[in-house]
TrEMBL record:
Domain Aminotransferase class V: 37-296
Organism listed in the record: Aestuariispira insulae
Top-level EC class: transferase
TM region positions: none
Family stated for the protein in its record: Belongs to the class-V pyridoxal-phosphate-dependent aminotransferase family. PhnW subfamily.
PANTHER family assigned to the protein according to its UniProt record, in alphabetical order: 2-AMINOETHYLPHOSPHONATE--PYRUVATE TRANSAMINASE
Reaction(s) the record says it catalyses: (2-aminoethyl)phosphonate + pyruvate = phosphonoacetaldehyde + L-alanine
Name of the protein: 2-aminoethylphosphonate--pyruvate transaminase
Annotated EC: 2.6.1.37
One example GO MF annotation: 2-aminoethylphosphonate-pyruvate transaminase activity
HAMAP family xref list: PhnW_aminotrans_5 (MF_01376)
Pfam families: Aminotran_5
Gene: phnW
Cofactor: pyridoxal 5'-phosphate
List of residues that carry N6-(pyridoxal phosphate)lysine: K200
Length: 383
């Protein structure tokens, strides 16, 4: 009965997760070498990656790229603590775990903040942001998450940016799960800094975050940081001085990201990459709805990155069993992280196409039959 499990180009299970994600064989293949961190060959690749990402961001001439070793959160913490002065104050827009994380980072680093929180399925009201900024002169910066990966919601980043600019404050963006797939052109969306990482929509391997910085704003951040390793200003100045990293660079990650960027450009850049993900998302959502599942979000708030589905009310549905059976068939999905509803998530980013989504839907249908689940509607809708 058991057919061969689905697999990536390298025979691995398919990652239907928000990153790390399934990468191409070539992105992994380029790593089977060694490079000297102070050797010209690596220095050139590093510079090319920095220039290409600024170009993808639409910031050539105005913005610079400061890479940061570690996972995405290292880049986010570096961005927050380097851009928000010690006597500054942040307005944090929260509708999920990554907005909450910004507050935690401010707590650890002794930075003042206020939050404007909306439920996980609700974007912030942009006029309300304006009112909060009008009422509190002390707020110097605003932190916004582009796609809140907690739910998969897309926040109105362009409108937020316009409001923050109109009120004369600085915007810091966590675009980790959206950058490369969803439009955020630095010429249209005014921000001082935007953080993302190697292992999300650029489809590289994990190990490096980066911050796209408005150069004029970055130039004014000297002395803000309170951790040497996370000091973006120092990382930038040192890298500008000799094109090298201050401390050991994640060389293989950078070389691999260089390859991933070539593949990103071959796919047509953001419109191409975002188009494939949008199609993946549509195929997945249509197929799941046909089985009776319901999405947390209405389609107009759904980013084509990761989709939250309500847990079925059927008493035979157990997430652990569902997860394990899908894993055996070669599909790794993601647990829910919501506080508003019992749910699970399926990602549609990475080296995956429509065929993989159809395959996942077929596996889900088979697993539901094995589990004897007949009603996929969530409890609240069934009542
Ligand atoms: C993935 C992600 C991050 C970074 O998470 P790490 O686990 O540190 O890589 C930050 N913000 C958002 C919105 C993300 O999706």
């Amino acid at each position: 009965m058991a057919s061969k499990p689905a697999a990536s180009e390298t025979g691995d299970p398919l990652l239907l997760t928000p990153g790390p994600l399934t990468t191409s064989r070539t992105v992994k293949d380029v790593m089977v070498h060694d490079w000297g961190s102070r050797d010209q060959k690596f220095i050139d690749i590093n510079q090319a990656v920095r220039d290409e990402i600024v170009k993808i961001a639409g910031g050539t001439g105005t913005h610079v790229l400061v890479p940061m070793q570690g996972s995405g959160t290292f880049a986010v913490e570096a961005m927050i603590t380097s851009f928000l002065p010690r006597d500054g104050k942040m307005l944090i827009l929260v509708n999920g775990a990554y907005g909450q994380r910004c507050a935690k980072i401010c707590d650890y680093n002794d930075r003042a903040y206020v939050t404007y929180e909306t439920p996980e399925d609700t974007p912030p009201n942009v006029d309300e942001i304006g009112r909060i900024l009008d009422a509190d002169e002390g707020i110097s910066h605003v932190f916004a998450v582009h796609c809140e990966t907690t739910s998969g919601i897309v926040n109105p980043i362009k409108e937020i940016a316009s409001m923050v600019k109109a009120k004369g404050r600085s915007l810091l963006v966590d675009s980790m799960s959206a950058f490369g797939a969803m439009p955020i052109d630095a010429g249209e969306v005014y921000y001082d800094a935007l953080a993302a990482s190697s292992n999300k929509c650029l489809e590289g391997v994990p190990g490096m975050g980066f911050v796209v910085c408005r150069e004029s704003a970055l130039a004014g951040t000297k002395g803000n940081a309170n951790a040497l390793v996370l000091d973006l200003f120092d990382q930038w100045k040192a890298m500008e001085a000799n094109k090298q990293w201050r401390f050991t660079p994640p060389i293989h990650v950078i070389v691999s990201l260089h390859q991933a960027i070539q593949e990103f450009l071959e796919e047509g850049g953001q419109p191409g990459r975002g188009g494939r993900y949008a199609n993946n998302c549509k195929v997945l959502v249509d197929g799941m709805r046909a089985m009776g599942f319901e999405t947390l979000l209405p389609d107009h708030l759904q980013a084509p990155i990761i989709i939250t589905f309500h847990k079925p009310s059927d008493p035979n549905f157990h997430f652990e069993t569902f997860y394990n059976a899908l894993a055996e068939k070669g599909y790794l999905i993601y647990p829910g992280k919501l506080t508003v509803a019992d749910s699970f998530r399926i990602g549609c980013i990475g080296r995956l196409d429509e065929g993989h989504m159809e395959g996942a839907l077929g596996a889900i249908r088979d697993v539901l039959t094995e589990m004897n689940v007949t009603n996929c509607a969530p409890a609240q809708a069934a009542e």
